[in-house]
Each structure stands twice: as C-alpha cells, then as structure tokens.
C-alpha cells in the first residue's frame, strides 16, 4: 500500500508518454518490476490494463478532435486478433532474435525522420486508395503481432507506417495509431486475463492514473501538432535504441 502513490505517479507519467508518442511501458514496467516483486507475466498483464485504459482514453480525445477514416476501425479489429496471437506465441520466439532486428529498424526510422524534416509535418490531404488501405491492413497485422509478442515502440511504428502509407500529417496518423494501439493492448490483455495474471487491485489504481496522464498527453499533442510528434518520435527512437542496446550488450 505504501508504494501505491509511487506506482500511480509512474502510471500517470507513462500515460502521458504513451499519448504523446507511445512507449509508456518503458516507464511503468521497470518500476513495477523493481518495486512489487511480481513475476514478469503479472507485471506485463497489470501494465496492459493501465495501458489499454489510458490509450483508449487518449484515442477518444484525439478522434473527436482530429478524426479518423472509417477503415481505421477495421485495422483495429485485425490488430486485436494478431496481438492476441502474438501474446499466445510469446514463449516461442526469443527476445535475442527480435531485439537486433528492432534496433536496426529503429536506427533506420530515426535517420529517415531526422534527415527528412518535412515528413509528416507538411503533408496535404491524405490519400486512401484501395492499395494503400490494403497496405494498412498488412501494417496492422504485423504491428499487432509485434505488440503481442514484444511491444516496445508499437505506437511509434504505427505513426510512421500510417504517415508513409497515406501521405498524411503525423497528427492524423497519431489519432489512427491510438485507435489501433488500443486494440493491440486489448488483444494481448485478453490472453493475460485468461491466464489469470492480472493483479486487479493494483491494475485499477494504475488505470485511473494512466487515464489522467493520457488525457494530459492527448491535449499536449493537440496543442503541439505534428512538429511535436516528430520531436517526440526522434526522442523515443534514442531511448528505445539505448534500452534495447543495453539489454543486448548485458545479455552477451
């Protein structure tokens, strides 16, 4: 009980980070692991309860203000199913296989955004052709499975993918990403609930704090626009590369 204020504060910060660009798990999961003594599966499951409520809250706020195309809800349904499949398959694929590939992808994403300052910040009207929507389905399949099985950077990869596919601004892509990311969190959480891994008392406290942080983060994004999302994306690339690189180094 004495740790609840600390954990609630961590969840609030995680909700803000998640709403701005994604990656709130980088804040909350280490705090839960270091302070609660729960097994890793219970930590991930309890974190998902907070994540899904916070992300859903941010999604509602951003969809109301920015809007998303109708097919975004179909992408969310696809991502839900694949995220659940990823969570079921999590024991079949080692982190040591995924981590180096994600590191390379993150560096490529960071360099592309850094050297293309107009990408996602000066886009005109979005383009939703059948071919591009089909590409969006493929992205939802891939990222949904990735979030279920590994997860770091899911929101960022969705924003990058939607921006590139539909030639739209980061802000609109962020709204779409929140819808799809809510579904990926929910898909993985469904598997965790079925396995009985959620500490519901702690999870509900974290969920309330995460929603508060998510609402603050969504408003930050709406005020800062696509340029803020670009800066946050670059910052997240650096943090993720540092985290994954350290894990890779320490495990070798």
Automatic annotation (TrEMBL):
It is a multi-pass membrane protein. It comes from the Bacteria. Keywords: Cell membrane, Membrane, Transmembrane, Transmembrane helix, Transport. One of its GO terms (cellular component) is plasma membrane. The keyword Transmembrane helix applies. The keyword ATP-binding does not apply. InterPro entries: TM_pro_TauE-like, TSUP. It holds the Pfam family TauE. It is found in: Cell membrane. The chain crosses the membrane at residues 71-93, 100-119, 131-150, 197-216, 228-246. Its main location: membrane. Belongs to the 4-toluene sulfonate uptake permease (TSUP) (TC 2.A.102) family. This is Probable membrane transporter protein.
